[in-house]
């Protein structure tokens, strides 16, 4: 067997592993940015349950001060426009996303300020630290850029273990 065929076979064997790794790259903590002010708005934890991707708000920033004003540990703010008026922190805003090549799609995203639900597509665009999150109705929508956070970037004393999360979908 020639060297090129061997390389092609090795690459073909590794492709599922590479795809699985890229799928996991979206997992973790992401800082969302307010569309109007361009200031930090919240921290969302993207987690996987089964073969689906979900996103939960774990902290909220003040748009005035840029400081964290609520977390899943304090749960002060209420999502007034969401059915049942749940607490904002702890709210799943992304659900049922399925891996499709180099993106996650087929699920939905909720705007917790408005209580509106949109279809959603999520992908990394070469930069592992910037996530594209597109909410849309049919072909009309908008794409936000979320920024990766490490555990050291989370509010002090906030212990979040996404492995313990169970999806809570409110429509």
What can you see in these coordinates?
With 171 residues, the chain is mainly beta. The chain is built from one helix and nine strands. The protein has one helix at residues 3-24, and strands spanning 28-33, 40-49, 52-61, 68-71, 92-100, 103-111, 116-124, 130-137, 140-149. Strands 1-2-3-5-6-7-8-9 form an eight-stranded antiparallel beta barrel.
Identify the notable features of this structure and list them briefly.
9 strands; 8-stranded antiparallel β-barrel; 171 residues; 13% helix; 1 helix; globular; disordered N terminus; mainly beta
Low-confidence runs (pLDDT<50, min 5 residues)? Answer: 3-23
* Percentage of residues in helical conformation: 10-25%
**Mean pLDDT reading:** 86
Going across the biggest sheet, name each strand in turn.
Answer: 1-2-3-5-6-7-8-9
Shape: globular
Number of helices: 1
Radius of gyration: 18 Å
Concise structural overview:
The protein has one helix spanning 3-24; strands spanning 28-33, 40-49, 52-61, 68-71, 92-100, 103-111, 116-124, 130-137, 140-149. It is 13% helix and 44% strand.
Blueprint (SSEs and pairs):
Blueprint: H1 3-24, E1 28-33, E2 40-49, E3 52-61, E4 68-71, E5 92-100, E6 103-111, E7 116-124, E8 130-137, E9 140-149
Antiparallel strand pairs: 1-2, 1-9, 2-3, 3-4, 3-5, 5-6, 6-7, 7-8, 8-9
């Amino acid at each position: 067997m020639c060297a090129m065929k061997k390389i092609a076979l090795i690459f073909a064997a590794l492709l599922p592993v590479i795809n699985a790794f890229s799928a996991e790259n979206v997992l973790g903590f992401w800082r969302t940015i307010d569309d109007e002010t361009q200031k930090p708005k919240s921290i969302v934890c993207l987690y996987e349950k089964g073969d689906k991707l979900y996103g939960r708000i774990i902290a909220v920033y003040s748009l005035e001060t840029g400081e964290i004003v609520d977390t899943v540990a304090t749960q002060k703010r209420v999502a007034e426009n969401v059915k049942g008026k749940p607490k904002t922190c702890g709210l799943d805003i992304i659900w049922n996303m399925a891996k499709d090549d180099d993106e996650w799609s087929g699920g939905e995203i909720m705007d917790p300020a408005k209580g509106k639900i949109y279809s959603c597509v999520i992908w990394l665009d070469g930069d592992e630290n910037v996530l594209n999150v597109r909410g849309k109705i049919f072909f009309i929508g908008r794409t936000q850029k979320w920024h990766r956070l490490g555990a050291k970037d989370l509010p002090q004393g906030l212990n979040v273990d996404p492995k313990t999360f169970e999806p809570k979908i409110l429509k």
